[in-house]
Amino acid sequence: MKLDVIKLDGGVAGDIELSEELFGLEPRADILHRVVRWQRNNAQAGTHKVLTRSETSYSTKKIYRQKGTGGARHGDRNAPIFRKGGIYKGPTPRSHGHDLPKKFRKLGLRHALSAKAKAGELVIIEDAAAEGKTAALAKQVKNLGWKRALIIDGASVNADFLKASKNIEGLDILPTMGANVYDILKRDTLVITKAGVEALEARLK
């Protein structure tokens, strides 16, 4: 598939032939869902914790005598049955992450790129370069109509461009190796540089 290549000032800089294997697939929601779930689960801290019976701060002294009260034979106030007692089988710190084959992760990225291309939310730019001035870059982004955009550059991101983009709301920049399904789907517009396209094709062969 062919797509126009534009400059940051809005001018046309030719066109580019995009690989059908990366940008021409029929997006599958089940594949995208599995990869996003894998990403979010790996990012989850899993630090939730409750106090068990041995960690609550009541005395371990017997509450009342064993016999003669007509009540149950309770001893420790830390028992789960009592208010502010220990929690039985509550959550403990653990990892929520799970494995996903590398081939499937690559497939998910291909489907995410194809989903953006099919929705008309894919933009190819000549390069991501700036003079380090936020105001100038913000004006260009506004003129291009990018409100929530992710820019994927080549192996590395231009330092001046990164500096200029830091205070622009809704604009994120990643090198090719940082490209992932969750960030791509989360943004309204996916912007890829020509160097980024070449690097993605090499990465997702």
Automatic annotation (TrEMBL):
<dbReference type="InterPro" id="IPR002136">
    <property type="entry name" value="Ribosomal_uL4"/>
</dbReference>
<dbReference type="Pfam" id="PF00573">
    <property type="entry name" value="Ribosomal_L4"/>
</dbReference>
<dbReference type="GO" id="GO:1990904">
    <property type="term" value="C:ribonucleoprotein complex"/>
</dbReference>
<comment type="similarity">
    <text>Belongs to the universal ribosomal protein uL4 family.</text>
</comment>
<feature type="region of interest" description="Disordered">
    <location>
        <begin position="64"/>
        <end position="101"/>
    </location>
</feature>
<comment type="subunit">
    <text>Part of the 50S ribosomal subunit.</text>
</comment>
<keyword id="KW-0689">Ribosomal protein</keyword>
<dbReference type="GO" id="GO:0006412">
    <property type="term" value="P:translation"/>
</dbReference>
<dbReference type="GO" id="GO:0003735">
    <property type="term" value="F:structural constituent of ribosome"/>
</dbReference>
<dbReference type="GO" id="GO:0005840">
    <property type="term" value="C:ribosome"/>
</dbReference>
<dbReference type="GO" id="GO:0019843">
    <property type="term" value="F:rRNA binding"/>
</dbReference>
<keyword id="KW-0694">RNA-binding</keyword>
<dbReference type="InterPro" id="IPR023574">
    <property type="entry name" value="Ribosomal_uL4_dom_sf"/>
</dbReference>
<protein>
    <recommendedName>
        <fullName>Large ribosomal subunit protein uL4</fullName>
    </recommendedName>
</protein>
<comment type="function">
    <text>Forms part of the polypeptide exit tunnel.</text>
</comment>
<dbReference type="InterPro" id="IPR013005">
    <property type="entry name" value="Ribosomal_uL4-like"/>
</dbReference>
<keyword id="KW-0687">Ribonucleoprotein</keyword>
<keyword id="KW-0699">rRNA-binding</keyword>
<comment type="function">
    <text>One of the primary rRNA binding proteins, this protein initially binds near the 5'-end of the 23S rRNA. It is important during the early stages of 50S assembly. It makes multiple contacts with different domains of the 23S rRNA in the assembled 50S subunit and ribosome.</text>
</comment>
